[in-house]
C-alpha cells in the first residue's frame, strides 16, 4: 500500500537545499554519511511521482510496502555520482543504495530514460 510523502527530516528548508534548480549542498547517506552526490551535481525534480519501496519492510508481508515520493535529485549517468550502488532489477527497475553501508533504496534508475533519481527524503544534505 502506498503512503503519502512526508517532508525530509533534515530540518532544512527547500530554499536552503535548491539553488538554480540544483542541489546547493552535497547529498549524503543518512545512515553512514557517505557522499552520494557533490554539490551542484544534480537537478531538482518534482514532476516524477514514484512508489519507492520502504527501507524497512514488515516481517511476514507478502507484498512490498512502498511510499509515493515526488522530490528527487536527478542525474543522467552513473558517473555523476560520487558513490552509489545498484540492486538487481526488480520488476524492471534497478534501485539505488548507498555503496558503503548498502542502506536503501535511496532512489531508482528509470528504465525508460536511464535517468537516476535520488529521493530527498532518503538522504541528508550538507
Walk me through the topology.
Elements: E1 2-3, H1 14-17, E2 18-19, E3 22-23, E4 27-29, E5 35-37, E6 43-45, E7 50-53, E8 66-69, E9 72-75, E10 85-86, E11 94-97, E12 107-109, E13 116-119, E14 123-125
Parallel strand pairs: 1-8
Antiparallel strand pairs: 2-3, 4-5, 4-14, 6-9, 7-8, 9-13, 10-11, 11-12, 12-13
Structure, explained:
InterPro entries: Mss4, Mss4-like_sf, Mss4/transl-control_tumour. GO terms for molecular function: guanyl-nucleotide exchange factor activity; zinc ion binding. With 126 residues, this protein is mainly beta. The protein is built from one helix and 14 strands, in the order βαβββββββββββββ. It has one helix spanning 14-17; strands spanning 2-3, 18-19, 22-23, 27-29, 35-37, 43-45, 50-53, 66-69, 72-75, 85-86, 94-97, 107-109, 116-119, 123-125. The strands form four sheets. The chain has a six-stranded antiparallel sheet with strand order 6-9-13-12-11-10, with no helix packed on it. The protein has a three-stranded mixed sheet with strand order 1-8-7, with no helix packed on it. A three-stranded antiparallel sheet has the order 5-4-14, with no helix packed on it. Mean pLDDT is 89; it is low at 1-11.
Amino acid at each position: 500500500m502506498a503512503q503519502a510523502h512526508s517532508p525530509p527530516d533534515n530540518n532544512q528548508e527547500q530554499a536552503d537545499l535548491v539553488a538554480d534548480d540544483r542541489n546547493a549542498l552535497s547529498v549524503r547517506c543518512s545512515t553512514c554519511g557517505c557522499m552520494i552526490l557533490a554539490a551542484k551535481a544534480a537537478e531538482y525534480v518534482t514532476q516524477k511521482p514514484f512508489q519507492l519501496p520502504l527501507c524497512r519492510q514488515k516481517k511476514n508481508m507478502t507484498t512490498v510496502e512502498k511510499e509515493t515520493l515526488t522530490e528527487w535529485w536527478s542525474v543522467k549517468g552513473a558517473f555523476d555520482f560520487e558513490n552509489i550502488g545498484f540492486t538487481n532489477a526488480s520488476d524492471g527497475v534497478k534501485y539505488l543504495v548507498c555503496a558503503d553501508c548498502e542502506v536503501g533504496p535511496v532512489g531508482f534508475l528509470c528504465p525508460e530514460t536511464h535517468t537516476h533519481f535520488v529521493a530527498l527524503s532518503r538522504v541528508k544534505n550538507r
